[in-house]
Amino acid sequence: MFKKLALLLVTGSLVTLQLQSQKRKVTVMDFDYGTIKTSIQSIYGTDADIGKGISDMLVNQLLQTGDYRLIERSALEKIMKEQNFSNSDRADPATAAKIGGLLGVDTMIVGSITTFGNEDNHYGGSGGGGTWYGKGLGGGLGINKNKTIVELTARLVDVNTGEILASVSGHGESEKKGLSVGGAGSSYWGKGGGGKFDMGSSNFQESQIGKTVKLAVAQLATNLDAKAPTLPPPAAAPVAALPPLDGLVADASSADIIINVGSKNGVKVGDTLIVTRVSRTINDPATGKKLRDIEDKVGTINVTSVDADSAIGRFTGPAAPKVGDHIKRPTP
């Protein structure tokens, strides 16, 4: 019974690891808000980065479901700064693929904010008509009807191929009614009384636009989660070809020989390298110029220690290695 239980536990762990490896490893780019930037500036009096705030909210939503493996966004922000990517690059799949490759993820979520507005209507009194972006209405006693709308789009981009795997959207809408006397400015934007704009603040979260943003982000996350089972398993990143290796034995006085190539040449602990020795040289009979060396295999080295310019390895072979013997990589 205990053997069966142990087998079930091991099998369950292997299945969990397999399912985990099939999940897409993603990070979320800051959402692009270029099409509504002027409106944001008129609302908040500054270029408030609502794109970053919405990305942070989306990450929190996706973490709750666990359908994707998420990479910390601080790593993304560091690379964005190092690579000098601008806000205009946020919605570019090619840029996302390049950043994703540097981050070691297989998928990037690239998003845009397409609507971030308010429709304000006043009924009754002397202040009829409607305005946008939270401007107060003059007039007598009446009813204010405020409707806020936020619309988001997001695309899943495969880092290795640049292919757009899926495109989803999120919509949030809320309405608020109330009596008004005369012209009063609205408070549904969560400005914080002239303080610094912060989408994570309770003032913003409890505002009408804040609640609408949460609705849109929640729907977007739900739609992204729904796409997760339909995505192809992440392909392995292409393996970079190792550079040619032509080193030399520098010391052969013990079983652990030292060679004159190291990590700068792509040598790693655990590598098995070929030891060859020049048996004869072929020269051009017309000019005497060397055409090539004929090399014979002497044995192999299993690398046990590496630094930048040298490595140590245990030699195996029928004949002893000598200083000056060549070190090659095995032919694939």
Could you characterize the architecture of this molecule?
There is one protein chain. The protein has helices at 2-22, 37-44, 50-65, 73-82, 93-103, 202-205, 208-227, and strands at residues 25-28, 69-70, 107-123, 129-132, 142-158, 164-180, 247-251, 256-259, 272-283, 290-306, 311-316, 326-328. The longest helix has 21 residues, at 2-22. The chain has seven helices and twelve strands. The strands form two sheets. Strands 1, 2, 3, 4, 5 and 6 form a six-stranded mixed β-sheet that branches. It has a six-stranded antiparallel β-barrel with strand order 7-8-11-10-9-12. With 332 residues, it is α+β, with helices and mostly antiparallel strands. The model is unreliable at 2-20, 126-139 and 181-186 (pLDDT under 50). The chain folds into two domains: 12-230, ABC-type transport auxiliary lipoprotein component (Rossmann fold, 3-Layer(aba) Sandwich), CATH 3.40.50.10610; 247-328, Beta Barrel (Thrombin, subunit H), CATH 2.40.10. 27% of the residues lie in helices and 33% in strands.
